[in-house]
Amino acid sequence: MIELSAKLTTGTVYLAGEALECCITFCHTTQPEHRNSQSHSDILENLAWASAQIHCFYSTSGNPSDKSLSIEKTTALEVTSCDIGDVVFHTKPKILFCDLTIPLGETKTFWYRESLPIEAAPSYRGTTIKYSYKITIATQKVGSHIKMVRIPFRVLPISPIMNMQDLAALCGNETTEDLQPTNPFSEERKVETPLTMALQVLQNLTARRSPNSYMITNTRGKVGRFCLFKSAYKLGEDIVGTFDFSVGTVTCMQVSVSLQPEEILKSKTPAKNVNNESSSRSMTVARYHEVTLGLTHSELILPIPLHITPAFDVNEVSLRWRLHFEFVTTNEKLCPNSDEKDWNAPLNVPIETMVWNLPVKIYSTLPKQITQHSVSSDAYTLCIK
Predict the structure, then answer these.
(1) How remote is the C-alpha of 72 from its chain's centroid?
(2) Do residues 271 and 241 lie in contact, with contact meaning Cβ atoms separated by under 8 Å?
(3) Per the structure, how many domains does the chain have?
(4) Are residues 202 and 214 in the same domain?
(5) In terms of domains, do 224 and 249 share one?
(6) Which residues are within 8 A (CB) of 235 and not within 5 positions of it... i.e. 6 or more apart?
């Protein structure tokens, strides 16, 4: 029996454009029931071939095979779409070996390295659409069927900056630097790749502070003022803002803020019986709630979870993020005056609830920021008999 073991050595989370590395081992072991009765044929095991490649699977709720998409066909392995989805992207298969003989008790190790395209769709599990990535390792023993093992991993988008000209403009004029005289004693300047340029752009976008103030009003007057210190964030950051109710003419009893995704389908044949607007509103990934009666100021701190998918835009779907506000207001003056010694809260208060949506931009973070908060990847094994 040969035991195939595979493990990602560079983590389980990658940015589009990054390179991944997988260690694949083939170990010739003995089955427990055959340890005392080994023949000459059991001493050597022979594998005809083995290959590895990356697949991106696409599926929709209620219809895993959306025939309106242009589905790519694999060039080496026949991948079923009944339980995973359709293959919308795959790399060329790389042959690990051909005609490999492994003596009993020995192990053969191979390395699979591949780079993801910078325009690749991210891993995403939405209300109607799902993208998932897997490394497919296939092998065949002489005289047996093909065996496969799939290793899942996560891909983060480098969007929305994908145009090379835009990257060069935002990261600096490369032509001007090339025209400057070179210093023979200085270190060689590193060549900027699309990935490093995109990372620099994302760092500049999310580090920039640009406070914006919004006056919140309803039909009866001013509720308060909300200040958001910046509108672009990375995964894992806190959305920080302040409420100022001292400028209001309407009493705000409580406020809640939710971080919600907006999934916009572009497919000509979307999944049936799905209301995109209502489903996006009901999905909340983070929530802030506070009773503000009697307060003149309040602070919003809303952590962005690391497991969510940043904003992206592909042919089938686009994802955006927003802050969904709910204000509970009343025209009644409920706070007692300073000279009142005895005051009882009213049993019934007429209230009104108003909602407001504020778009925010959420970008990817470095994969190491996610992997240090997650469990290390385990090896995936497959027994080949």
Answers:
(1) 23
(2) no
(3) 3
(4) no
(5) yes
(6) 156, 304, 305, 306, 308, 310, 362, 363, 364, 365, 369, 370
Query: Considering the domain boundaries, does residue 370 fall inside one?
Result: no
Pair 94, 220 in one domain? no
Q: Which strand (E) or helix (H) includes residue 111?
A: strand 107-115
**Nearest to 362, CA basis, from 216, 209, 206:** 206
Q: Are 28 and 106 in contact (CB under 8 A)?
A: yes
Q: Based on the domain organization, do 221 and 247 belong to the same domain? A: yes
Whether residue 367 has a cis bond before it, omega within 30° of 0: no
Q: Write out the chain's pLDDT in tens, 385 residues.
A: 899 999 999 889 999 989 999 999 999 987 655 555 555 556 888 999 999 999 999 988 754 444 444 444 444 455 544 457 889 889 999 999 999 999 998 999 999 999 998 888 999 998 888 999 999 999 998 888 999 999 999 999 986 554 444 554 444 443 334 434 555 555 555 566 777 777 788 888 888 788 999 999 998 899 999 999 998 999 999 999 999 999 999 999 999 999 999 998 876 545 555 554 434 445 899 999 999 988 999 999 999 999 999 999 988 889 999 999 999 998 877 766 656 667 676 778 888 999 999 999 999 998 887 876 555 567 888 888 7
CA 271 to chain centre: 22
Boundaries of domain holding 144? 2-62+76-156
Task: Take residue 249 and report the two structure tokens written for it.
Answer: 């003419």
> Would you say residue 52 lies in a domain?
yes
pTM across the whole model? 0.79
- Which residues are CB-contacts of 110 (< 8 A; sequence separation ≥ 6)? 23, 24, 25, 26, 50, 96, 97
Burial of 141 (0-12, 13-18, 19+ CB in 10 A): middle
